[in-house]
Write a structure and sequence with these properties.
By secondary structure, the protein is an alpha+beta fold. 30% of the residues lie in helices and 24% in strands.
Length: 666
């Protein structure tokens, strides 16, 4: 029985095999060959394919030559339904190319032929592109639009194309002169690294112009005569998108220049030599909006014909296959006031440490100036700095106290020192003895009595401080800002000495100068201010909010405690915003800082009465500790924060800077 069963099974297998053989019309092999062809074309490498009508190696060379102008792009290629006709077959090939932000799609047709048990592709240029003829390759022409401007208040041109001169050595103009000698003289003339520039010139080809430096035409001191006196040296005029000066709002705006070789390589075909791209700040953040879209034309051209021959040919033998129109960039509109921005920068020009001045309009939230001083070394201290705010934070303490029933006339105890869990806190050096003892909250605020505010720690919880901060627009999201910024960090939980340190703006409390200006502006407005800088955020717009951790070197702590890191991002706007009555009480106390406190130097600032609050925050491990110097002020519809990273007392260091700025601002 077992033997009979095996014979039956064997017979069944033979019948099935015969049936499959009879049904096998070669479709599976043709479909496999079609998929292999599509995969090879997508890789732009057909060297391993079975090819008829052309040597496989020659076919591979042709495909590379045809598509060389599109490098480094490669197509996606999909094979369609195979049409079988005996030992012949045809198959559609669907191509998709990424050309910048556009897609170029087309279908070609390939012919296959079976030889023995293998299918070979019948080589023809049309299977690469249906209109392509033998002896033709593709040509890509790119037209870039001019970069759009960055505008300020009243559509003032902050960044626009301004004349420049590229100074360098043109090796075609050297004659018999020594390239190295000319390069040395150019480097010495313009002040660049001599050895590096000489090496660069020597390595360049005989037709190269090697730029050493780009100079603004306006105000340049190196003359055409000085350049021409060096064999082979040239000044090539051009234009670049530039701010009014090299330093104007540089940390905020960023820069725009021709793409470097590294940027081009990283872009993977999205950039080419000569493209102007943004680096840092708004220029980088809104690069796509400002740069617009290149126009691209892809056409055929006879292989081996030079550009000169093409120009002379009548008619032009090229045929257009695909085109994308140039799209101009969209100007970026901001609220920056060029006069106030320049004034802020001029005010900080002589400040050695990192520093910042931020000015905004409380009624609208418009950021009018966000200047970072020369000591910031290009960092956007004004908007990204993360520092302990010191006694400026007493504005937030006071709001929390008002909500617990106190008023500016409530009495508090101002003692020379106060001890919390074994740690002693004291008032700033030079604190007036006449303001010690039982004093009004207004007086404690005006003279910035640390001990009085710390003594209220049991009546004001850390959660209440956090709530009061968000009520003043601090440590919340800034959906209208349109730029990267740190809006503050005020933890909702802190105990013992950490809570006590929070009462004087230290511990884990951190603000940026922008956040400090927002805090003051919210008092002036009588409602939380949401800052706005970019008016038309297009491509690349982020949602600005407090970052989750401070930048290296920017964290600050109360005296003797380790630096701290905020652990949570910004919150949504407060559900308990400051009221007009609360703002009125805070304005009363800020005015007292000027009329009876230690910011009396602001009393004679012309115009509307000035209200202010100073702040000094210890940081680092030095003994005595270094201090951040702060002052915030309101002056009519203007709120200003001034900050100096290593600056002594807020009143004596940042105060005079504020007075100078407010007096000149008018």
């Amino acid at each position: 029985m077992g033997k009979t069963k095996n014979i039956v099974l064997g017979l069944a297998a033979l019948l099935i095999a015969a049936s499959l053989s009879a049904c096998d019309d070669g479709r599976a092999g043709a479909e496999g060959a079609a998929k292999q062809l599509a995969s090879s074309l997508a890789a732009l490498d057909v060297g391993t394919l079975a090819v008829e009508g052309k040597d496989a190696a020659a076919a591979n060379e042709q495909i590379k030559a045809v598509f060389a102008a599109l490098d480094p792009a490669k197509p996606a290629v999909e094979s369609g339904a195979v049409k079988l006709d005996g030992d012949k077959a045809t198959v559609p090939l669907n191509y998709t190319w990424k050309i910048g932000t556009a897609e170029w799609k087309y279908s070609a047709e390939a012919s296959l032929k079976k030889s023995g048990d293998k299918w070979a592709v019948q080589w023809a240029p049309a299977l690469l592109e249906p209109e392509l003829k033998d002896g033709e390759i593709l040509e890509k022409t790119v037209a870039s639009p001019s970069r759009a401007d960055i505008l300020g208040a009243g559509n003032a041109k902050l960044v626009t194309y301004r004349p420049v001169v590229y100074v360098g050595v043109d090796k075609t103009q050297l004659g018999s002169a020594d390239p190295a000698a000319s390069a040395s003289k150019v480097a010495q003339l313009v002040g660049v690294d001599e050895a590096a520039y000489v090496k660069q010139v020597q390595a360049a080809g005989p037709q190269a112009f090697v730029s050493a430096i780009t100079l603004r035409e306006d105000g340049r001191t190196i003359t055409d005569q000085q350049i021409a006196a060096i064999p082979g040296a040239r000044g090539v005029p051009d234009t670049l998108p530039l701010a009014p000066s090299r330093t104007f709002a540089r940390a905020l705006l960023g820069t725009a220049a021709e793409a470097s070789a590294e940027q081009i390589e990283k872009a993977g075909g999205a950039l080419k030599a000569g493209d102007v791209v943004g680096s840092g700040g708004l220029q980088e953040q809104y690069d796509a909006q400002l740069r617009g879209q290149d126009g691209v034309t892809i056409q055929t051209r006879p292989q081996g014909m030079t550009d000169e021959q093409l120009k002379a040919a009548k008619p032009d033998p090229r045929r257009r296959l695909f085109a994308v129109d140039t799209k101009a960039g969209e100007p970026l509109k901001t609220t920056l006031d060029p006069r106030l921005q320049q004034l802020a920068e001029d005010t900080l020009a002589g400040v050695g440490p990192a520093s910042a001045i931020v000015a905004l309009r409380p009624s609208t939230g418009a950021v009018l100036a966000a200047a970072s001083g020369p000591g910031s070394n290009g960092y956007n201290t004004a908007m990204l700095g993360q520092y302990a705010p010191g006694s400026t934070f007493k504005m937030i303490d006071s709001l929390a106290m008002f909500r617990n029933g106190m008023t500016p006339d409530s009495k508090v105890e101002c003692t020379p020192t106060i001890t919390v869990d074994g740690r002693t806190f004291k008032n700033a050096e030079g604190y007036p003895a006449s303001s010690l003892g039982s004093v009004t909250l207004r007086d404690a605020f005006a003279h910035s009595c640390n001990t009085a505010f710390i003594s209220m720690r049991d009546q004001v919880s850390q959660a209440q401080l956090e709530s009061a901060a968000t009520s003043l627009g601090v440590a919340v999201e800034a959906p209208k800002l349109g730029a990267n910024a740190f809006l503050g960090s005020v933890p909702g939980n802190a105990d013992g000495t950490e809570h006590a340190a929070s009462m004087i703006g230290q511990g884990k409390v951190l603000l940026s100068p922008l956040a400090a200006a927002v805090m003051a502006g919210s008092v002036a407005r009588g409602a939380p201010v949401s800052p706005q800088l970019v008016l038309n955020p297009g491509a690349g717009s982020p949602s600005a909010s407090a970052s989750a951790s401070p930048a290296a070197g920017d964290s600050a702590a109360a005296s003797g405690s380790p630096s701290s890191t905020p652990s949570s991002p910004a919150a949504p706007p407060s559900d308990k915003p400051i009221t007009a009555a609360e703002a009125g009480a805070l304005s009363d106390m800020m005015r007292a800082v000027v009329t009876s406190g230690h910011a009396g130097f602001l009393a004679n600032v012309p115009g509307a009465p000035v209200g202010a609050k100073t702040g000094t925050a210890e940081f680092g491990q030095d003994n005595p500790p270094k201090t951040h110097a702060w002052i915030v002020a309101v002056h009519g519809d203007l709120a200003v924060a001034v900050f100096v990273e290593d600056g002594g007392l807020g009143a004596t260091t940042s105060g005079p800077l504020l007075k100078s700025f407010l007096t000149a601002a008018g």
